[in-house]
Amino acid sequence: MGWNVAGILLHDASVDDVVKGLPGGPVDTGGRLSGDEALSMGADADHAVGVVGEWTMITDPGMQVMFDQDAWESLSSASRRALAFLVHSVSSTYGFSYHVDGRPARELLHVEGECVRDEGDPLPEESDLPEPGTEDHVLGLIGHLTGDQWWSAVLDAPFRILRAG
């Protein structure tokens, strides 16, 4: 497929709480993007936020949050289940960090085919996924956690454009 996307999924979290938890005090510009546009690493936004079903999604094109431990912990504690994910086919980097009740449950990161981080027991949702270290593994996990039709719904969902305040 060739995806290049980074984001965070928070289960049953309000958009306002999510935005408050982002570093840099981002503000809603009033602009909107489709999910397909928001997921692009080239999106003209510091972040974009949208809601699909029970999940609030923050796009993180600059990977500002996913590698900011304080921000990620703050966001994950606002939700019972939280998943940060990275699919970067250009550099063959694929991974995720899954938190339950604000605590890490599973982290997995592969770079150029090598596992560089593998913490926690594999999730039951990983059992029938393709080999780790592939975009299909990460995207499949998202599908299993959120519902199989969720991912396609994201592409058409409206996202709010956020810029650092």
Layout of helices and strands, plus pairs?
Elements: E1 4-11, H1 15-21, E2 27-34, H2 35-38, E3 47-52, E4 55-59, H3 69-77, E5 81-88, E6 93-100, E7 103-111, E8 114-119, H4 135-146, H5 150-156, E9 158-163
Antiparallel strand pairs: 1-4, 1-5, 2-9, 3-4, 3-9, 5-6, 6-7, 7-8
Can you give a write-up of this model?
By secondary structure, the chain is of the alpha+beta class. It has one domain. The protein has helices at about 15-20, 35-40, 70-75, 135-145, 150-155; strands at about 5-10, 25-35, 45-50, 55-60, 80-90, 95-100, 105-110, 115-120, 160-165. The protein has a 9-stranded antiparallel sheet with strand order 2-9-3-4-1-5-6-7-8, sandwiched between helices. A hairpin with a 4-residue loop joins β5 and β6 (about 95-100). The longest helix has 12 residues, at about 135-145.
Note the main sheet: 9 strands, antiparallel
Helix coverage percent of residues? 10-25%
Shape annotation: globular
- Rounded to an integer in angstroms, the radius of gyration calculated over CA atoms is 15 Å
**Number of helical runs?**
5
Q: Looking across the biggest beta sheet, what order are the strands in?
A: 2-9-3-4-1-5-6-7-8
Number of strands: 9
> Uncertain spans, ≥5 residues at pLDDT below 50?
none
In what range is the share of β-strand residues? Answer: 35-45%
Report how far apart the termini are: 35 Å
Total number of distinct structural domains? 1
N to C succession of SSEs = EHEHEEHEEEEHHE
Structural class, by secondary structure, is alpha+beta
